[in-house]
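#random but structural
TW: two for the price of one
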Amino acid sequence: MASLPSPNSTYYIAGESQNGNDFDLQFQNDNRLYFYTDAGTSISYAPNTASMVGQWHMIAATFNATTNTQDIYWDGSLVSSGNVGSGTNKTGAFWIGNSSVFSNRWFNGGIDEVAVWNYDLSAAQVSSIYASASSSTGTAPEPASWLLLGLGLPVMFWVRRRSTQKCGR
C-alpha cells in the first residue's frame, strides 16, 4: 500500500461485491484486513501497521463452501479463521482494486499476481506457494505481491502490477 486507509476510507483489494451477498477482501479504516462472504459477516486480521506501507506481502483468502470456513493467510501463514458466513452463489463481476457496488474504495498501492482457483486451497498449498515465491529472498518476493483467492470460481488469472491510477475491472 502507498498509505494506510484514512478514517473515512476503505481499500478494496478484490472480490464479487453484491448488496447483501458480499465476497470481498479489503483493508478498512481500522487498518484491519477483512474477508466477507455474505451479508456483512467477516473474519479479519490486524497486521503490523509498520509493515503495511511500501512493502509487498502475499495475502491469501480461502473459503470452503461445504463447511462455510473462511481463512486469511499473511505471507504464507494462517492468521485468521472462522465459520461465520455462507457460500451463497455469487453472480456479480469479479473486480480487482475497486468495488463495482461500494463506491470510492480504490486500492491505494500496487496489486500484482492475482490468482483465483475454483476450489479452496489448503494451508499446505498456500504455504508452498509462498515458500516457492520467496525462496530466493526469504520474504515476500518483490515486485510480486500475491493475492490468492480460493473462491469457488471457475477461473484462474494473473494481473501484473499497476500504478496507483484508478482502474476498474
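TW: number two ↓
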Amino acid sequence: MKRQVTASPPAGRDPNETKTQRVSSRYTGVAGEMPRKVRAREALPGELRQLERLFADCGWPDRREFVQARKRARARALDVLEGSSSGVDSSRIALLVAAAELFVAFRMALPASVQEAACLVQQLEDIIGIPRIALAREVLRAPELLTMSPAVAVEAQLGALIALAPLRNVSLWTLRTAEHANCVRHVGDGSRSRGARQLAERLLAGEITEPTETTPRRLLLGLPVGRRPHPIAALVASARPGMRDSSRCFLADAAPILGAVLERDALLSGSAASERALVESSERKLTRLGFDLHDGPIQDVAVLAQDLRLFRDQLELVYGPHTQQKFVGGRIEDLDAQLVALDAELRRLSSEVRAASVLLNKPFDEALRDRIQTFAARTGIEPRLTLAGDMNVLSTSQQIALLNIIQEALSNIREHADATAVAISVSVVADRVQAKVVDNGLGFDIESTLMRSAREGRVGLLAMNERVRLLGGRCRIESRHGGPTVVSVTLERWLPLLT
C-alpha cells in the first residue's frame, strides 16, 4: 500500500492561502504591494480567453497568423492594464484593444468571408459585450491598411464596414471622366445603383461635404473621401431600414484611412509614367554600354592577347639557356591566362548589361524562356518552367529584377551545382508575385559561402537579396550539403487603383 505524504505549509503561512495571495506575498515590497505587471496579469479579464476562442474558430488562411495575432493582442491588453488603475473600465478597454488587434489581423480575409466576419462581430457584441461602434473606431482607423497594396486595402476596409456597420452594401467611387463616376469596389448585397452613382458624382463635384442621405426609400448615405474641395473619391452606402443615423459615424471612421490609401495610390500612379521613362532611359544606356563593352574593351583585350602570343613566338628565337626559356615562357603563360580571365569577365558583364535591356523588345515570359534555352544549350539540362497568372501586371523594375535573379541562380547551378534537374516557377496572385528556382545539385553551406563570396568580391548571392530588398520584397536562399537548393522571391504586386 502506498503511503500518502501530505506536505505541510512552511511555518507562518496560512494553509488556506490562495495562489494569487502567494504570488502577491512573494512580490510584496516595503509598501506591501504587488508590482504593476503582476497585478495586471492577475487582472486580465476572463473574457479574454473566450474572445480568443471566438477568433480561433474563424477561417484563418494560415494558423500561424492567428497565433502571432493572439500574442500581439495579449501584449496590448497587458499594456493597457499595466498603465491603468485596476477596475472594470480598464479591463473592458483591454478587452476592446485585444479584440481590435485580432480583428485587424483577420481583416485580410474579410472580402472573401464578409458574412463570417459579420457573424463574428455579432458574437463579440452578444457574448463578450463589446459594442460594435467602439470596435469599429479601433478597426476602421487601424494604420495597418497603409502597409497593404491599394486594391487589397480598399477591399479590406469596405469588407470591415459591412461586417461592423448596419449597412446593406457600400461602394467606393472615383471620377472616370470630368463628370462621370466609376465604381472602384462594391461590397455587400445587391449591385451598384443609379442613385449611388448620382450621389457619388455630387460628392466628387464638391456639392456635398458632409455625410448625407438621399430619399428615405433608398436609404443612401454618402461621404467625400480625401481633401476638400476636390475629394479624391466618394464613399456611398445603403443603410438598413431605420439605421441611417447610426450608420453615419461608421462611414466617418472609415473615410480618413481610405483617403490616405487613395492619396498614396494616386502618388504612385502619378509617378508610374516617370518611373517607366526613367527605367527605359536607363535600359537604353545599359544597351549602349553593352555594345560599347563588346566593341571596345573586349576587342582590345582580344588584340592584346594576340600580340602577347606573337611576342612569345618572337622571344623563342632569342631565348637564352633552357632554364631561362622556361622562366620567361611561364611568365608569359601567366599573363595570357590573366587576359583570358579578363576577357571572360568583360564578356559576362556585357552579356548581363545587354540582358537587362531585353525587356525593351520582349515580354517577360519570352525573355525568361530565352534565358532558359541558353542554360539548356550550355548544360544539357532542360529546366521545367511553370508560369501562373498575368505576367503583364509586373512592373518593369520587377521584371528586370526577377530575370536577373533567375539568371544568377541558373549561372550558379551551371558553375557549381552539378545538378541534373532544375525547376523554375513564377506566379502572380492577388497581392503578390512569387518566383522560385529549385535544383537537385550538390548544395552548399549558405553562411560560409556568403562570407567567402564577400571576401573574394563575388556578389552574386548578395545581389539577389539586394535587388529584392530595394523593391520591398523578400528573398530566401535555402541549401545544405547534398542539396537541394531553393531560391525563392516574393514581391508585393502593385496595381494602380485610380485609373
